[in-house]
Give the backbone structure.
Amino acid sequence: MRGTRIVVLGAGIVGAACARELALAGCAVTVLERGGPAAATTAHGEGNVLVSDKGPGPELELARLSRRLWPEVLEALAAHRPGAAAAVEWEPKGGIVVATTGEGARELERFAASQRAAGVTAEALDPGVLARAEPHLTRDVTAAVAYPEDAQVQPSGAAVALLGDALRAGAVLRTGCDVREAVARGGRLTGVRTSLGLVEGDAFVNAAGPWAGELSARLGAPVDVRPRRGEVLVTTPMPPTVFHKVYDADYVGAVGSGAGDLQASAVVESTRAGTILLGSSRRRVGFDDRTRPEVLSVIAAKALRLFPALAGVPVMRAYGGFRPYVPDHLPVIGPDPRLDGLWHAGGHEGAGIGLSAGTARLLRDLMLGGRPDLDPAPFRVDRPAVLGAAEGETR
């Protein structure tokens, strides 16, 4: 497959990771991006590389693969472009999940036990150990579990580093290139018409994030990937205050919920720059990008319940973005059975940063005939959650 012309549609972190894997494998890769690299969903993420929020199953397996691959990717980046590797801001600082009610404690302990059975390191913390690990955390905690495998990156820095390595390996990037329709011959996708003209290829990867549903409809093979909005508050830089990614056990339920109304839980973590990120929220509002003060108020209140000492800290900005939501909460990775030559790599919702490395490796193996590190079947395109509603929708 060396020299195969592969066109990646989208230059967010998933598209960048896929482009890198395929270019390093010898494919002739072209990346089409209607805006700028890592400028949309990726730029509005928190940079989570998590296993702590995923129960046993295929997404956890993909997360564990990604967590194993990230250090390998960073080592390879550092060998060629040390500055780019540093810009990723990799921090394997671990996560701590806390419960603040009796019921929450029971559910957290049950969830952690199921993860341990699946091979995840999940360490119960007693109050003394927790206080030393997070001295500013509320003492009103009924249970706490540490996840040393959790890590964090700077999302845009990570995406640009991956894309830069793809370009070093021969990939080509075209920005300001909006894909408008498919060109097919004999039931096979052979090209896409764009705002910059026709782009031909042997295979095309839909890595358009929350816009994957809209793009797939333009190509004549719709998938049910929808936008789900989230907001984050950012404090001014502070002395070291939060030392892990800390979140309330309610976060797992909010992630797994399919409700369209506001789902919010406390997520608090620091960045290398000293700011503290306060999240998180989930709402299905289409592509309405208006920031809602009432949502920010809920986020702040939940964060303050965990870290009361943040009450007087100034918030310097808030931002929001769209996550690519799939009704069954699993990514879509693999070939489209309706249109030969079309592949999908998306639907990660809020986990795309962390899952990008594993997604790209899985996609590369599927496209080039390699042996995947995990079973790709749960992520297949022709499952009801992906094709059911999409086939009957007009977008």
In short: Residues 58-80 form the longest helix (23 residues). The radius of gyration is 21 Å. DSSP finds eleven helices and 19 strands in the chain. The chain has a mean pLDDT of 94.
